[in-house]
Amino acid sequence: MKFRTLILLVSIIIVFNSVLHASSVRAIVRENNASFANVQDADVCLLAADGSVLSQQTGDGGITTFQNVVPGNFTVRAHKTGFNPFSIDAFVKPNTEYRVVLALTEGNSPPLPCNVVGPRDVTVTFQQITANPVPTASIVDYRLTIDNIGQSSTPTVITRIDLPPGFQFNQTQNPSFNLTCGATGGTGGTSVRVRCTVSTLGPASNAAVNIKLVTPSNVSGNPQIFSLQAFADPDNTVIEGNEANNHSSLKTHVNNAPDLAPDVSGSDTQVALKREYTYQVRARNLGSVEAPNVVVRATLPPEAEFVRAENNTFSNCNNSGQFVDCQANIQPGEIKAVRVIARPRDSTPRNRQMIFTLTIDPNNSIAESREFNNNAVVSTVTQ
Questions:
Q1: Burial class (CB in 10 A: 0-12, 13-18, 19+), 187
Q2: Using an 8 Å Cβ cutoff, are 128 and 142 in contact?
Q3: Which of 157, 269, 322, 353 is the most buried (most CB within 10 A)?
Q4: Which pLDDT band holds residue 119 (cuts at 50, 70, 90)?
């Protein structure tokens, strides 16, 4: 017999009755097919807020009613041989009758005894993708995975990530279709919390998302070690068999780091053929610590040739073909500069655009707080 994928239709009808002196839960069990027939002799379990477990069977109408239910969170589950079991969570208010309709799909899942209090089991895994140590004020990649390793579907599951002081939320990438995330806090000295919500998790299924966080701009150690915590179902609204596996933590090592930024300008936007013109090259350290042995590479356009370098504050500069490489240690806030003199080649035609490129740390040998601001260009047109 070929069983269809578990399709669970749940509707909760709230019937308020001021006459009732205690809450009750009425469970109606039906087949999830065109007939929507009542399922007789189905085992129905009620896991109440006080921890009690009740078990009853449905009668001719596929109905059973639990009386005197303690108000609060509860789980109701129906199962019968030949069908897949299913559980839902809800909240019982005082003096309220809940009608719960469970449509069961044919399946070969084993029966689930009522004394198995937690047929669902949510776990969380929080991982750091970017290798430690990481620079200050840099974007670090993490991955959050929420698993249901239990035997029945969950209701909505919320996962909270507590960030240390100074960490900021950047963005999420590639979330599962039913998972969304957002951040709160971060103002007035408060720490940021990231909350991710997944609408439901079937048995043996998971939802995952990549999360980008920004490290603090300054740290007290080199490295300073920060602990990040993730909690699945932090408000304990999902009834589970194992509540001890809802936490995951990791440590991010943050180093103070330099932040190198280039700047280049041309003496003219237009230059006559065979005439010298100047590129003003600057490299600045915007970071919190010294950047040692910084290489700054100026790449001349192929239409131009190197003439000389002037007013050099770098330790040394060398020319090789179209490249001018300068090197120096750059302190926080310090600027190193050099003027590169060039001229168009004799073969260069008029109205030719020439692109001059400046790159800091071309071999990416220096760990910086920002790696995306290491290039600058300037354009000159021949006359």
A1: exposed
A2: yes
A3: 157
A4: low
Alpha carbon dihedral 301, 304, 305, 309, in 10-degree steps, equals -70
Residue 87 has φ and ψ, to the nearest 5°, of -125, 150
Burial class (CB in 10 A: 0-12, 13-18, 19+), 73: middle
- C-alpha distance from residue 84 to each of 109, 118, 233, 323 (Å): 5, 16, 25, 70
Burial class (CB in 10 A: 0-12, 13-18, 19+), 338: buried
* 370 token code pair: 């920002």
Residue 234: C-alpha distances to residues 152, 159, 231 (Å): 20, 7, 6
How far is residue 36's CA from residue 29's CA, in Å, rounded to a whole number? 9
CA atoms within 13 A on the CB side of 180: 3
Q: Do residues 208 and 195 touch, judged by C-beta distance below 8 A? A: no
Rounded-to-integer distance, Cα 23 and Cα 70, Å: 7
In one-letter notation, the amino acid at residue 142 is Y
CA distances to 29, 220, 225, 261 from 136, rounded to whole Å, are 57, 11, 12, 15
Cβ neighbours for 255, distance < 8 A, ≥ 6 positions apart: 133, 134, 135, 136, 219, 222, 223, 367
Given the structure tokens 């209701």, which residue do they identify? 155
- Please state the pTM of the whole predicted model: 0.53
Tell me, what's the pLDDT at 255?
85
User: pLDDT digits over 31-84, tens only?
Assistant: 988 888 988 888 888 876 555 677 777 777 889 888 888 788 788 888 888 888
